[in-house]
Amino acid sequence: MNRAGPAGGRMIRMAFQSLSIVLVLMSFSALADETARVLEEIREVSYTRHWQEAQAMLDELAGEVAGFPLRQQVEFHLLEARHLSLDDRNHQALARVDEVLALPIDDDQRLRTLQLAANVAVLLRSYEAAFEYLLDALTVKEDVQDPEAVIGTFNMAGYMFGRVGEHDRAASYGERAVEMTLELGDLNRECVARQRLAPIYKWAGRAERSESEYRRAIERCGQVGNSLFVGVLKHGLADQLRKLGRFEEARDLVGESIRLLEESVFPLGEYEARLVQAEVLHDLGDEEAWAAQDLNDLLDYFRERDLWDQIARLEALLSARAEAAGYPQQALEHLQRHLQARERFLGRDRTMLLAYLEVEFDTRLKDQQIELLAESARVARVEQQAAEQQRRARTAILLLSAALLILLLIMLLGALRGRRHFRYLSRHDPLSGLANQGWFLQRAEAVLDKARQQGGGVCLVMADIDHFKRINDRYGHLVGDGVIGQAARRLRESFGDEALIGRVGGEEFGILMPTEAMDDVLRGIERFQQGGRPSGRATDPHFTLSFGVACLQKGDSLSQLRTRADQALYEAKRTGRDRYVIDSQKAAGAGPAPV
Predict the structure, then answer these.
(1) Residue ranges of the alpha helices (H) in 476-549?
(2) CA–CA gap between residue 571 and residue 582 (Å, rounded)
(3) pLDDT category, 321, cuts 50, 70, 90?
(4) Residue 554 burial class via C-beta count within 10 angstroms: exposed 0-12, middle 13-18, buried 19 and up
(5) Can you tell me the mean pLDDT for 500-510?
(6) Highest mean pLDDT: which of 106-110, 187-191, 412-416, 545-549?
(7) How far apart are CA 438 and CA 99, in angstroms?
(8) 497: nearest Cα among 519, 513, 479
(9) Which helix (H) or strand (E) holds 580?
(10) Over the chain, what is the mean pLDDT?
């Protein structure tokens, strides 16, 4: 009987070990493939059927996630983060994607994670973080060949740049995303891309193009069964049609939207659609349907989430309803809460714009620094080579160094000019050129402090464009913006350089005059009223302003002074508009409208 020696035994053991390793690797590969297939199926359910059904499937896998390959673990967590956001748990969703970003993941997954992070940060109104995520995604995009990931980045970039008023840049990103989905022939991704593109044209004031994109997006999303996006799109289109005066169409669309968003369990979208529905019912004068609205529930939801833009819209609606019903005190209270909410929203809106400007500035400065470092390295190499050459070559190196120093100084001066420019943007309203609300209030506090110390007088005038909504509805928002600019110019001409003038709301202005003579204030108002139609196009609408005047009393704070001026302004509006009313603590009376 033959027996294998020691060497033969070792060879047999090694063969068995190798076979075992191969079998384990094959088993692991098969498991990874199966896990990837299951997660792709869950992803399909999440995007085309219902996210809660997809979450139930994820819950069944939760106990096995730790044993998944890293790539499948990331896919699992991204789906759960999406579902947390849809379930109105955005803080938890953002924490989850930040955990994923800390892992050593592939570039295509990093890109999709950054896209989701930017989207959730926008829902949380954390705009600086949103722009940082977006710019990181735009950087990673250059190294990624996966069309799906690149399309998602273009979608998010279009939306974000549209929110800060960069409409041409936003539309360029959005249209490129749609083009890529058409090249792929992918209806599902086309649905998502068009859902992002439609509101960009609405923000840009291009109503016809926006309505066309909304309807095309609704058709595509309906074809792939994405009822969540159809609901969001119908809500957005209903809001636009309401502003165009097409109330019956808006009512039908927003009713369908609410039903779809309820079925999709997307609370934020549902509550925003219900607000549009309340506005449409008010516009239609449908008292029976209006009475069925639970607006306190809407207010509670928006307040819990600090959604000041929606709160401002709802308070304005309640004020109009109270005024129409003959309850002026309630109307005033709602109007004051509307102004407070609008102030907070405008402050957040400015924060978003400043976040964009700061990130954009930091990015450009970083690029300049990288260019300078690269240039310095090149100079060092040239100097090292020149050290081995003749003295004439060293002279050329010195001249080149001097040129680089001048370039550095020029670039630094450019950076300083950029900072000054951004500081100006942070203090001035871009539409009117006046001080924005934050800068106006800061300077007003300083003027009041000086008046208290030196014993001087100060008067505050609050002014509001009459029937501004009618101007927007009849002529469009571009003409409305022009009216705001014309009103600002005429106010500067009427009140002179001594007055501090700011735009403190959508169509509202504040004028602070350091004077003890009420006549100085009234002459400024009368100069404005006698100015008639401003110079411009013959088609420009005629407009008037109502004014409320209050003068500083002993012990007054800026807030108290403004409240009295606002009350006087409300009285001017209530008694006929195109006039001024003086706060009763200073003097009784109202200036009539010009003949």
Answers:
(1) 477-495, 518-529
(2) 9
(3) confident
(4) exposed
(5) 93
(6) 545-549
(7) 36
(8) 513
(9) strand 580-582
(10) 80
- How far apart CA 247 and CA 460 sit, in angstroms, is 39
pLDDT score at 376: 47
Between 26 and 109, residue with greater pLDDT: 109
> Two tokens at 463?
């002014």
- Token digits for 73? 């673990």
Per the listing, tokens 């008639």 go with 532
Rg over alpha carbons for the chain, rounded to the nearest Å, is 31
Check residue 366 and give its pLDDT: 43
In 3-state terms the chain splits into helix, strand, coil percentages (rounded to 5) of 75, 5, 20
Helices and strands counted in the chain (H then E): 23, 6
| pLDDT higher than 70, residue 589 | no
**How does DSSP classify residue 471?**
H
Q: Which of 427, 412, 334, 429 is nearest to 372 (CA)?
A: 412
CA-closest candidate to residue 155, choices 184, 132, 178: 178
Question: What is the spatial distance between Cα 197 and Cα 214, in angstroms, rounded to a whole number?
Answer: 8
For 423, residues 6+ apart whose C-beta sits below 8 A from its C-beta are none
132, 85, 116: which is closest to 352 by C-alpha?
132
Residue 174 CB: number of other CB atoms within 10 A?
26
For residues 118 and 156, the answer to whether their CB atoms sit within 8 Å is: yes
Give the model's confidence band at 532: pLDDT under 50 very low, under 70 low, under 90 confident, else very high. Answer: low
Side-chain half-sphere CA neighbours of 165 within 13 A: 9
Q: What's the gap between Cα 150 and its chain centre?
A: 22
Look up tokens 């003949």; give the residue. Answer: 595
Give how far Cα 184 sits from Cα of 148, 179, 285, Å. Answer: 9, 9, 47
3-state secondary structure of 20: helix
Nearest to 264 by CA among 81, 87, 79: 87
* Token pair 């969001």: residue: 232
Tokens of 517: 């003579």
Tokens of 504: 């403190």
Task: List pLDDT tens digits, range 147-205.
Answer: 776 777 787 778 778 877 888 888 888 888 889 889 888 888 888 888 888 888 888 88
pLDDT band at 439 (very low <50, low <70, confident <90, very high): very high
Burial class (CB in 10 A: 0-12, 13-18, 19+), 492: middle
Q: Residues 530, 564: contact at Cβ < 8 Å? A: no
What lies within 8 Å, CB to CB, of 238 at 6+ separation is: 249, 250, 251, 253, 254, 257, 273, 276, 277, 280
**Model confidence at 455: pLDDT above 70:** yes
d(CA 103, CA 73): 11
pLDDT confidence bin for 19, thresholds 50/70/90: very low
Q: Show the tokens assigned to 42.
A: 């869950």
Decide: 479 and 422 in contact? Cβ < 8 Å. no
